[in-house]
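Protocol step 6 of 9: fold each sequence in the batch and record its C-alpha cells directly after the sequence line. For illustration, a two-sequence batch is reproduced in full.

Sequence one:
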Amino acid sequence: MSTADAGWEALGSSQTEQSDFSSEIKQGGGSGWGATCTSTSGYSLSYDSSTKKLWPANSARYAAFRIKTPGGSAPAPAGGALVTCIMHRRGWSRPYGDVALSGDGALDCKAKCKGGGYKYFGMECPMTTKVHCQCSNGKDGTEKPASYCEGKGGHSHNHCVGPYKKDGWLFGDAYVGSVYLTAA
C-alpha cells in the first residue's frame, strides 16, 4: 500500500492540530472525509523523494488520512507508522529475542522495547513464523527505501525467507531492519 494507491481520503482542519483530532478520526472513522490532492510542498521522504505527497483538497493546515479498501472500509490501523528501513544497523540490540511474525508479534516487540525504555523498535529477518525483535534509542545505519523492508532490496535473503509484509507491518530482510517508534 502506498500513496499512489486509489482510495485515499483526507480530513483537513485549519483550526485543530492533528494531535487534537478525535480518537474516532485517528482510527479512520467519523465523518467529514473528502478528496485528496497532490501536495506541492518542498518536503519529501528522505529515503524516497518520488513518493506522491497527499494533502486534503481544501488546503487545510492540519490533516488526517485514511484509505478505503475495495470492500469499502478503512483498514485497521497497524499500530505505528514506519519511520524508515535501516541496513547494516548500528546501536541496535535484541534483548527480547524473536517474536511471532504477525501483527501481534510486532505489537509484542513494541511493548517490550517501550518497557525497556527504548525510543525505537523494529524487526529484522522474517523466518516464516518468527522474526528478530530489536530495540534502539537511535536509528543508526544506512537508511534504505521501504522496499528493502519488503524483501525487494536486491540482495541475498539468506535464511530470511519472509513473509516480509504482514498485518500492515514490514518485517525487514537479511541485514535490513524496519524502524518504528515505541511511543506511536
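Sequence two, same batch, same settings:
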Amino acid sequence: MEKIDARTHSPQTQYEIRKQVIRLRKQGIPNQVLAEGVGISVYHASRIWQSYWKGGNKAIQLRVRGRQEGEKRTLTAEQEAQVKRDLIDKTPPDQLKLPFALWTREAVKLLIKHRFRIGKKLLSGWRGARNKSRFSTFPLIRQSSIQTNT
C-alpha cells in the first residue's frame, strides 16, 4: 500500500488510523506488517503504540492543535480595535504627530508605542492589522531600478 503523509489526513481520519493501529497491535501483529497495511511508516506505528502503552486511550484522543484565540498577544482586543480604527479612519500619521506621511510598519509600531506605552516587538499584531484593515501601502522603488534618460 502506498504511504501517504498522515498530516494531510483530517483529524478524524488520523484518530481512526490510531485506533486501527492499537487494535492490530493488540492482536499481536508486528509494527512492520501493520504499518504496511494501514499505510503509515513503521516509526509512526511504533509512536502510536508507545503513546497508547504509556497513556491509554487518552494519549491517542483528538486534541485541539495550535494556539488558542488571543493567546500570547501583546495588545488586548480593545487596543487592536483602536489601532485598526486609527488606520481605517483615513487619519494620516502626521496628524497624530508621528514623523511619517503614510502608514508603514514603523509608523504603526510608533503609534502603538506612544498610545499604549508598549515597546516590545509587535510582529503578530502588525500582521493582523495589515490583513484586516484597508489602508494602502505603496511598493518601494529602489534607487538602482530607476532609469534616467540621458
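Proceed to step 7 once all outputs are recorded. Observation for sequence two: The radius of gyration is 26 Å.
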